[in-house]
Amino acid sequence: MMNLQNLIRRQTAFLMTMVLAGLLISQVCVGQTPYPMVMSLEPVAAQQGQTSEHTVRSRYNMFGAYRVLVSGTGVTGEVVPPEPPPEKKEEAKKEDQAADKKEEKKEEKKPNVERLKVRFTVAPDALPGVRDFRIATPQGVSTVGQLVIAADTVVRESGNNDKRAEANEVPVPVTICGVFEKAEDIDYYKFKAEAGMALSFHVRCMRLQDRIHDLQNHADPMITLRNASGTTLAAVDNYFAADPWMTYEFKEAGEYYLEIRDVRFNGNTYWQYSVEISNRPFVSNVYPLGVAPGKETDFQLVGFGFQQQQQAKATIQEAGLMGPQWVQVKVGETLSNPAPIVVSDLPLVAETSDPNNDPASAQPIVIPAGVNGQVESETDIDCYRFDAKKGEHYTIEVVARRHQSMLDSHVRILNAEGKQQTLNDDMKIGKHTFADSKIENWTVPADGQYIIEVRDLHLRGGPEHVYLLKVSPSKQDFRIFADTDKTQLTPGTGGVLFVRIERRNGFTGEVQLHVDGLPKGVEADCGKIVAGKGVDGCIVLKATDDAPMDISNLTIRGTAETKDGDQARTLEHQAIVYQETYQPGGGRGHWTVDQHVLSIGEVNDISRLKVSTQEITAKPGDSVKIDVEIDRVEGFEKNVSLDVLFKHLSSTYGNSLPAGVTLDDKNSKILLTGKESKGHITLKIADTVEPVEQQLFPVMAHVSINFVMKATYAVPMKITILPKEKKEEAKADEKK
């Protein structure tokens, strides 16, 4: 087995040959070494039970790629090493042998590799759907790419298929992979259908693009079904967000055409799509949506390819995994596509079959409860009645649209006389707003009965308008969010990840941060989010000088103590992880991903970041200077900015300093230009600062990759603020 260094050397030899041959491989400029940013995967789908090769395209360099990470289970990936030309193989072998005997004195310049072959192996029982994948390189770990796992044969678009006469002929069932590569691109696919055959057409395109770092504009696909003479039989634009899904039963046997294009006739070389054409059942929703772990559930299926009121059974075994999940059920002898469910530990009840459309006929429930409901038809309104006492606090939440239901919920609380107490349309979690509804920490104004009213905002309805209504007493709690999805380290350097808190139901306590899954050679300083108004905390990670090249998925957690009356309670939550994206206009966007990944790569632009002290003790009113020095790699003369906050434009995304401690810009040297390597940061301590002990914050050195993205180096700092009275005592001692 070729070792990693030899693999990289062989890639170098092959790619340098390609340069000499005149192929398009450019040299990376010295300095500002960026991690790769995945832009597309072609083809975007892989089949269950198969091994297939794909091309990853990126911005920035994937040279030396050595590992592929894939989320979930049942799918593995590997880099396909480029093979040298035949006449170069013996030469490459000799080079490998020589390299094993002695180190090369001079490192070869790295070619810029923005196309890479990868191989995915999919187990026969791998769950269909979308997986995140990443590429590990010596420059760092890539942003997230998207891979579709499909049940049927994957066929790629070929040739010029912009006209029906040039349509690609495909079998059915099939998964078609293509791209809207240019403006006004229309792709045609020809297939045969028998009389009475019913097919579903499921497009994934726009939904694959949210996590792409620098796409700027997203595709908006539409599909049209035509007969042999070109007559339109059916057309669909949006169904799952901007992606179409439609079903059609063919009355006559013959040849038919599927036309797919961007609805605006736009195109982009990165706008990959997959179309799953199948005659198997397609489950869009199930009822009930909410299920208990470890119990067999009878589901009523909603979708295509089965009789109305079709039933199926399934058991969710993973008792520890609460919240939105996906389940496959048996429809006859066929296993369905994954359907959305919500696993809940609340006592579950079903909406009654009796009318519950107004306060007078409201269905009684006992809190806490998870109510499985369905807005069955247009203008349907569901009402639920509960008893409450003055001063009690309740949280009411609908899970629906964010987990593939068609319901755009609107929730009100009414008193027994039907008078509105409060309402909510859309809810927010972290940085994202959802069409689901949530009323949090509502205070009961008086003893009595109250009504929860659930309806669709636009008074639509139907079998696919399922929901889980969660009603429970409000308890102090929190959520935490990791601002980035990757920490890039090199031997001897550190990085920082910021964690932001969302306090719920009056929680004001301190949250201690933790990180699990560190690879060999990496140490962590885990900070805290201070009590009261504290918003951000941080974790600073450092690689030892001899840390080997590696990549690892991390788990970021927060723990806290609180009380419900006299009852102590421990809170623990895993961080929701965001990947940053370059938004149109230069904004910094965020999308959730499955994992935070730590990478140890080769030394890049800065080999060391040093500070004059790593512990500060200060008093209100003080000013503190921290000297900072960087070791630049040879040839790196780009600007480096120093900071203690993580910012972009006018927004701050990470600030773990105690409230009242700020960066004194005027008395700091934070921009290091050219060959400059020394600067300093001055902190101002306000007179009103509250005491704090050993609060962790980073001193950072940023190297810009583009207008939004930065390569960040960090060292941990701890600051202690003394009480104000100790400051006065210190002044008195100075006078003596």
What does this structure look like?
This protein has 736 residues and is mainly beta. The protein has five domains: 4-150, Immunoglobulin-like; 154-278, Jelly Rolls, CATH 2.60.120; 282-343, no CATH class; 348-474, Jelly Rolls, CATH 2.60.120.380; 478-721, Sandwich (Immunoglobulin-like). The chain is 6% helix and 50% strand. Strands 44-46-42-40-49-50 form a six-stranded mixed beta sheet, with no helix packed on it. Strands 41, 43, 45, 47, 48 and 51 form a six-stranded mixed beta sheet that branches. Strands 2, 4, 7, 8 and 9 form a five-stranded mixed beta sheet that branches. Helix 1 (4-20) packs across helix 2 (89-101). The longest helix is centred in the first third of the chain and has 17 residues, at 4-20. It is flat and about 95 Å long. It starts with a helix and ends with a helix.
Short overview:
Helix content is 6%, strand content 50%. It is mainly beta and 736 residues long.
Radius of gyration: 29 Å
Instruction: Quickly give the CATH architecture of the largest domain.
Output: Sandwich
Instruction: Describe the strand arrangement of the main beta sheet, using strand numbers.
Output: 44-46-42-40-49-50
* Percent in helix: under 10%
- Report the end-to-end length measured between terminal Cα atoms: 74 Å
Oligomer status: single chain
Low confidence ranges: 12-31, 102-106
Percentage of residues in DSSP E strands: over 45%
Q: How many beta-strand elements?
A: 62
Round the mean pLDDT to the nearest integer and report it: 90
Instruction: Report the structural category.
Output: mainly beta
Sheet bearing the most strands, described?
Answer: 6 strands, mixed
CATH H-level superfamily of the largest domain: Immunoglobulins
The number of distinct structural domains comes to 5
Q: Please report the number of helical segments.
A: 3
- CATH top level label of the largest domain: Mainly Beta
Shape: flat
- CATH topology of the largest domain, by name, is Immunoglobulin-like
